[in-house]
Design brief:
The protein is α+β, with helices and mostly antiparallel strands. 30% of the residues lie in helices and 26% in strands. It has one domain. Helix 5 packs across helix 6. The model has no long low-confidence stretch (mean pLDDT 79).
Length: 193
């Protein structure tokens, strides 16, 4: 998808590191996480995030370890922060890791221009990929990590390829086969003889 194929009104153009390469990104002007942080003028949201984030102070380097979320989780296993809406008694949920990234770096880009095409951008918990014992999926304890040093901005496709679930395994197989074909000059699908 190219930038002119979708309406990018409501976005500002910037640059960021996506898939570990500097890319042109498109940042929404009206992002729910940023709006939530701005709407809680007295700092309650940030205070709540700080209270629910637990650093392992016994770790050799607490700043390099995972910072575990102690608050509520959504059905996918990610930490969530309840943000009051203007309507009395109504709340909406914001991903706690999105709050952490927004506090540290600002609004999260929604799109990135990679190889001349637009790709959806997501936050990936890198610490999960480094832990061979992590089962992945909804039981992944790294989804609760709040350390922005353990997060990367990646395309949605790269996030799937890095995943430990069924889709990640299939994507890894397809990528490995493509690399083998490229190196060996093989055609795909192979011709039957």
């Amino acid at each position: 998808m190219l930038p002119d194929q979708i309406g990018l009104r409501g976005y500002r153009q910037s640059t960021a590191v996506v898939n570990r390469l500097t890319s042109t990104v498109f940042v929404p002007l009206d992002d729910p996480t940023t709006r939530a942080l701005d709407s809680v003028a007295d700092g309650n949201l940030l205070d709540l995030w700080i209270l629910q984030t637990h650093k392992d102070l016994d770790a050799p380097d607490p700043d390099a370890a995972c910072w575990n979320w102690g608050g509520p989780l959504n059905e996918g296993g990610y930490g969530v922060v309840r943000v009051p809406q203007n309507v009395v008694g109504r709340y909406f949920h914001v991903g706690a890791h999105r709050v952490a990234w927004t506090v540290e770096y600002g609004t999260i880009p929604r799109w990135a221009l990679i190889d001349g095409r637009l790709h959806r951008v997501v936050l990936d918990h890198v610490c999960c990929g480094l832990d061979v014992n992590c089962p992945g999926g909804r039981t992944c304890r790294h989804r609760q990590c709040q350390n922005v040093g353990h997060m990367d901005l990646v395309s949605n496709g790269e996030n799937v390829r890095r995943g430990k679930g069924l889709h990640g395994e299939k994507a890894a197989q397809v990528a490995a086969e493509a690399r083998r074909r490229q190196r060996g000059g093989l055609t795909w699908p192979p011709h039957s003889t």
